[in-house]
Amino acid sequence: VCVILHLHFNDFKTNLGQEGHEWPTVTCPFLVSQQTITPIDDTRHLLVSGYMDQRVKGLDVRIISIFNKNTTHPMHCLFCCAGSLSTSTPASILPHPEDFGFAYVTTDVMCHIPQDCNATHVTVLTEPFTQNPTKPSNHTWLPLRNRNKHLSDQEKLKFNFTVCISSLFGDYDNVLQFVQTLEMYRLLGVDRVVIYKTSCSRNFDRALQIYSQEGFLEVVPWPIDKYLNPSPGWLFSRSGGDVHYFGQMTTLNECIYRNMERSRYVLLNDMDEIIMPYQHNNLMSLMDALQTQHPETGVFLIENQIFSKTIFEPSRRFHLPQWEGVPGVNILEHIHKEKPNGKVSYLYKIIIQPRMVEQTSVHRVIKAFSSKVLVPLDVCGIIHVRDSFRGPDYKNFQMDKRLWDFQELLIPRVDEVLKKVGLLNETGRAEE
Ligand SMILES: *[C@@H]1O[C@H](CO)[C@@H](O)[C@H](O)[C@H]1NC(C)=O
Ligand SMILES: *[C@@H]1O[C@H](CO)[C@@H](O)[C@H](O)[C@H]1NC(C)=O
Ligand SMILES: *[C@@H]1O[C@H](CO)[C@@H](O)[C@H](O)[C@H]1NC(C)=O
Ligand SMILES: *[C@@H]1O[C@H](CO)[C@@H](O)[C@H](O)[C@H]1NC(C)=O
What we know:
Keywords: Glycosyltransferase, Membrane, Transferase, Transmembrane, Transmembrane helix
Pfam families: Glyco_transf_92
Family: Belongs to the glycosyltransferase 92 family.
Organism: Salarias fasciatus (Jewelled blenny)
Bound molecules: 2-acetamido-2-deoxy-beta-D-glucopyranose
EC number: 2.4.1.-
Radius of gyration: 24 Å
């Protein structure tokens, strides 16, 4: 069940005066949502999480939500102010502009907090709230996060780089590529990876557990399939379903706000993508250089490069025996990337300063408080090992051995993780 009882109903103080018509002193929060998805009562809308966000004048709170486009009645925010209920305030409903034809769209519910309210929790209602002594409030509350404005950056910024991975679903089993990719992130200076998980294979789940236990990975449960019929595709007319790609837009935006206080930079890329600096050894020196050139910029677009997973590097020197039984792609074996064909690519992934961004899509930022910069491919590009749409002819591809610069550090780290996952072929290792 999705709620915990913080107090019992007996704990409500019905503080009726002599005349019997004073409002009761209602305590809150009574029921706090323990889920990442919380339906709004009497609607088809879903709330995800509430954040303090005072970057837009006159508004204090942004609630990342998923709204049904068809139902657009006015909504209201109610706050729990350090133990007592506020009056409600009208909500601004801001649907994100890209819905790709789906009925459900990522939506920001934005509200003003009433004066003198030290808000700790928020909920969204279809009617303005009036206290009623005969009907104690039992709303489901969302905790209000990012309430640490008073702390210094030094106290808040726990991470320099956080990678947000927006959706893990189906029977995803690409363990080898995942472990190689996470270890590459670590070598490049990533401090934290956040993954929104609907489902995956058992082996994969084991790898997630290993990384979560050591604190490098934060797995956010994402049971979107309990509430909607999520689409495995990005376009309604092609794949059907209620919501774009398992709610990817929502989780990407949620991840930005989740990391706004605590991470200097956020990388928005998929699980099979590595944002790779070509002139620097790690992301911090890359970003130091980029920010020196572009001091006011908080949005950096990184171009995609597709490395064919069906073309193997001929010497097979990284076809290692200990990885023989591990499901998934060995990225060290795929060094042929598609040659640019003169057309401009729009398939960017993004490095952002989360505090500069208001709304994002997958390949571009929708609303930001800063300009954006397109980073040249010789400075930084995405290593994305996957199926190529080009024919298998070598002339369509060029070699890129950048990953091999890290192999000496990478391989033992991958082995160590696979051993913990229970997938390393120990005989293979010994024979080597
Ligand atoms: C939304 O409303 C339109 C027009 O009333 C209707 O045709 C459509 O089926 C509705 N879609 C959903 C998902 O309810
Ligand atoms: C707001 O409430 C929190 C406890 O929920 C408390 O720690 C904080 O000091 C309060 N802030 C103000 C300004 O009263
Ligand atoms: C809370 O309110 C709903 C109706 O809004 C009601 O169905 C439910 O029983 C109430 N829960 C409790 C614990 O009283
Ligand atoms: C972030 O980078 C700075 C500068 O390189 C470094 O001093 C600091 O320790 C890093 N913080 C974390 C959490 O890694």
